[in-house]
Amino acid sequence: MLTMSQVTARTAVPADTIRYYERIGLLPPPERTSGAHRRYDERAVDRLLFIRGAQRLGLHLAEIGSLLEVRDTGECPCEPAETLLRRHVAEIDAEMARLAALRRELTTMLSQMPGPCADPAPGAWCPPVEEVTRSA
């Protein structure tokens, strides 16, 4: 059995985060010593590493919890995981398209910049307001 500090050292997950995961049900409550100190087994370490890895992939804690719930029933979580990952890939693709369009707009505006300007005149904006409002 491992102490909290041993688990944090092996997983790089802070103790406060581990306690939070216990509170929200991502990590089952650990065994306790007679002095109420937590003791974790290797399954807890494995689970924490999975949670961190899934977070690095952009999954939210609720989504991770759903996958863990399926796994905890003894079922294979691969099918729901595939659905979840496909949805995230689609979201990333949409965001990349949005950012590419934004980049095109910005480079167009940059190419139309007048260069050095004198004192700003009333109603004159840089970039031109009509360009900004047209692209909004």
Automatic annotation (TrEMBL):
GO molecular function: DNA binding; DNA-binding transcription factor activity
Cited Gene3D superfamilies: 1.10.1660.10
Alphabetized UniProt keyword annotations: DNA-binding, Transcription, Transcription regulation
SMART domains in alphabetical order: HTH_MERR
Record-annotated HTH merR-type domain positions: 1-70
Superkingdom of this protein's organism: Bacteria
PROSITE patterns: HTH_MERR_2 (PS50937)
Signal peptide (from-to): none
Protein name, as recorded: DNA-binding transcriptional regulator, MerR family
Source species: Amycolatopsis xylanica
